[in-house]
Fold these 3 entries.
Entry 1:
Amino acid sequence: MADELDTPHPALAGPAGTHLAPCTPLEPPAEPDPVRIDSTASLLAIVPYLLGFEPANSMVVIGTHPCTGQVMLTLRYDLPDPPDPQDAAGITAHAIGILTGQHARSAFAAGYGPGRLVTPLAAALRAAAPSAGLEMREILRVQDKRYWSCLRTGHDGGVAGGTPFSTASHLATALLTAGGPRVLAGREELAAAVAALGGEAGEAMARATRRAEQHAARLIRQAAESGQKAPARRLVADAGLDAVARAIGRYRRSGRPVTGPEAAWLTVELRDLRVRDDAWARMDPAHTAAHLRLWTDLTRRARPGYVPAPASLLAFVAWQSGDGALANVALDRALADDPQYSMAMLLRQVISSGAPPSMARLPMTPEQVADSYGEGEDDAGSDAGAISPEREDPGSSGRHGPPHPAAGAPNPD
């Protein structure tokens, strides 16, 4: 099964099989979104904007605020195929647990796909909601620009051919189009936006990365041969700290993208946990747009073996900004490159639990990160090396790295 918590407008929304992405903050926004779900038409109109893409083979569940009726959070699940009662029960339990945990007392659901896939999950939601104190105000099946109510009729149907609909002229569509990014054709288009560069650009990045590796190795060798007191890796890490800090400042000031050789050097240096954690500590939400551009650029340019750090930082910033879909596709990329990368595993766990973006607090300051890496750790293993991959025990907190990003925050469940 696939669970994904996706975010409401203005963010986009997204692992494959059974995945989750972040949701909206628990607390009502300072300036409430004027769009409410008050009809079937408005529900159908806003779903693509809540997700950021046109859903397919998905069950979308939307929790609304008990007082204002405004959207609180949006969850998207892959439809189990083939249908399986245990998968339907698991998705239903997860959705209801997140909704009630975030104090949503009413919800809407729309299943996008054929009846044989949507109906079992719709029936499970309809049956389980009342005992949890959750009012399902509507459950739809949607396919080929037609919808069927699975709530009023108690089954997939009502009208044999469904009811045709168009959202192009709906007021909600106009409001959301004016205030947010365009709706993508599907989650695949979103994934493509963070996919590795291919063709000539990808080959150029591979060459640049090899040169960056050689440069890092040369610096280590020269430092070791010079007899300097400071450990060789520490000197290389210092160069990485400076390079990453300058790149962050550059994207904040001008947005001018890094060059291929610069990107290669940054991705190589970010494999040092000291460098990555310093970058993590600098993710001030006041500069979210700049940070999203930076980590997207580096995630796309990173070659195999160097993807997890920039992709995980992209996921954190996306979650921080309320963009659940982007957070999940970034984590997909990180974990595809290294399934045991602890930062990506941690973020997936936190995000999948329904933790809202308000919990994406910076765990440390850059100064605290520096203090956490004592002199005695500089030669304490390959995970501190500038050109060595992270190798932390996924079952532990790891020797390095900031604490849990939601440390000290209440459990959303």
Note: The first strand starts at residue 2 and ends at 6.
Entry 2:
Amino acid sequence: MMSTQEALEDQRSRGVHSKPLNSGPRHLRQSLTIQRGRLSVKRMFTMITGVNFTVIAYLIVISGQNVMNGYRDDHSTIIIFSLTVLLGILSALSFLIIERRVVNPLNRLARQTKSIQREHADKLLPINSHHDEISELVSAFNDLLVGMRNTYSNLQEANQELRSANKQIEDSIRYAGILQRSILPDRQLNDIFEERYFVLWEPKDIVGGDYYLFHKDEGRYLTGVADCAGHGVPGAMMTMMARAGVDRAIQEVGIDSPARLLRSLDASLRGIVLDDLQSRAIATSMDMGLVLLDFDQRQLRFAGARIALYWSNGNDIHWIHGENRAICDRRQGSYVDHDLELLPGFTYYLSTDGYLDQSGGEHGYAIGSERFTQWLLKNARKPLSEQRNAFSESLARFRGNHPQRDDITILSFRFD
């Protein structure tokens, strides 16, 4: 089977030529003009029309003279009869020319075009041997068809390249997701809390800007959640930098005071990020809530930067808001420790704003603090594994068909 280009070259080798379609009005006029030695439909109709006009004019003149002279002779009658017969013959010839050179070719072209559309997408329209205007039209159409097929082929190649590049990017992001998950302390949390904790971590994309942390030091445990500005790959890059900043701050000031640790982290990230002039045009802040747990003393110490601590036993609910300034905010914040007694029967929660800000419901409103605290009261007495499912299912039902707006993280634990 010949390709489109080969079919076009075959037609040209048999004497049917076509020129590019973009050669301008001059070429268009030339394509409608017959070449020397070719009898086109236009010339044939011009000749027949001229003869018909001459015959009709002559008949009018002869008839007028007879009327004016008041007589008829046999010679004039023969001439009029002959011309009338000639006119009839020319009219019949005109009908045949229209039928064979215009109507039939156009009907044939319509059928062939539909056949190409339905079954033979790689074919071209056949060109007849009359070399008339219809042949020129078919040749121009074939040129256009070849150009469109070449363009489509180029688009397919470009799309294939885009799909290949997109796959490479997706593979890289999935690998980045594996790396990000590797810094999350699931094993350490499970070793310490066993069945007394749960984490709901749902990035908006494959990777995200939320993460949670855990650090053990001489029988005390530091845990918390963080929400870096942005989501996706930029957010994930920020979590890596934030994780390194937290480790450095712990080495410098220890874990005795979560507030002091937040101040140290803020200072170190501020020196790295805000000194870069380019970073001033983008968001580089981070919300964080940290909790220091001393199970022996049954004490909890909390400090937060725009993240609150909630606790509930199913009957009562309490919370402490974090400070209003995020880590690495444009204006430096001040962070304070809050000491609480670890109460048995209470479940404690740290959540990033992605859960509370998720839109849904009939009117597309956010979950908000009031609905969130109602869900806390409803689920606080359940086992932690059931609570995770309950919060995940409540979120899915509320969200409905609305897209996920942000990364979501809830870290919850209980002291018995």
Note: Confidence is low (pLDDT under 50) at residues 14-37.
Entry 3:
Amino acid sequence: MEPFRSRSSWRAALVESGDEIWCVFIDGPHSEMYPEIYPTRPRPYDYLAIIVLVWASLFIIRWTAPSDLLDKDQQRPAAYMADAALNGNWIVQVDDYGRVCSKPPIYTWLGAFLILITGKINAFALYFPSALGVLGCCLIMWYLGGRHFGYPAALLGASFLLLSPIGVRILYLARTDALFSFTTFLTACIGYGCRCKNWNWVWFWLAAAAATLTKGPLGLVLAAGGLIGLPRTTPIMENQRRVRQLVGGALLYSIICAGWLLLAYMQLGDAVIDKLIGRELYGHTDWRSERFSINLFFFITPTLFFLSRFAPWSILSICGLWMVWKRPATETQERLFERFLASYFCFGVILFSIFPHQRPDHLFPLLPAAGLLAGREITRWVGLRNYPRWVIPSVIGFGLLAATGFAVYYYKID
């Protein structure tokens, strides 16, 4: 038995066993040691089930609501899927007017594969890849956030992501943003594992290749930003095995991405380079190609996007960022993880603040980190890490209330 210590976060229960009576601590840091005595304490997969339930409920609401396919430039991704599934153009696709696709093909491949399974072009095939991208972000938050911040914080963070205005919008949008956010955040988290947990760097480069083939090399840049805030350890170049992993992974990344670009060029020629490299990559980073004026408002626009589109949770995220700097965690792994999240988020906001092409949806890859910091801050304030049984009922209740509001909005109920 754990010896008695005077801690206000522990509660004791008297358990009768035959002729003996035992005093057992059932709530607090060690309550998971006695699941048979305190069976109502949520387990990790209970939190996962709630996350999936909230995600599925929001997807069903958006799926059954009136379609907005003609809005937000969703026609072109739908045309790319149709070209791949119906015409067999799996390497590179064109739209209804014969124009080359503006993004790499992973999102298109997933949608086209669903079209082949269902036998027709439908809303499920167009939007489900985006919903899977949002769910993937939530799963990473549950796994890594639960291990470092506790599963109540992970559940709250994933719920904040899902129940934010931008989260509900991206969940059901026929664009690459949600899937790109998942692959980017996955790449960043694998990079964190490689730096702090001795994971294989080859997985980092494979995830980076997936992000690049979803929307471009920006995913690799954002993921690398999360590693800036981590403390320096033993130089990687002194470890031959790590060097082989880095070089081999980078070579594999180059082969995958350059190989696809070469195949696309062989199929459609210079139009691929002009569209993907000239217009999409260079054009969106060249200040001369965008109409803007240099002023203070331009540089703070991404921050304002975050504060408004992720409201009200954005305020909690700001508080979480402040606490990372002001009062870092005492436990080593938790402190490393919070520094990684803060670096990943701040680097991304700074990067988008100097890019001439600014849209609110660009910030979505950063929101899983913001959600985790916000969830951890709530658990600190309320003490939910030691008393987690209130988290699930609270999330269910608020989720029902938010889902009702979203249903009223998307169904246009007067």
Note: The beta strands are 11-17, 20-27.
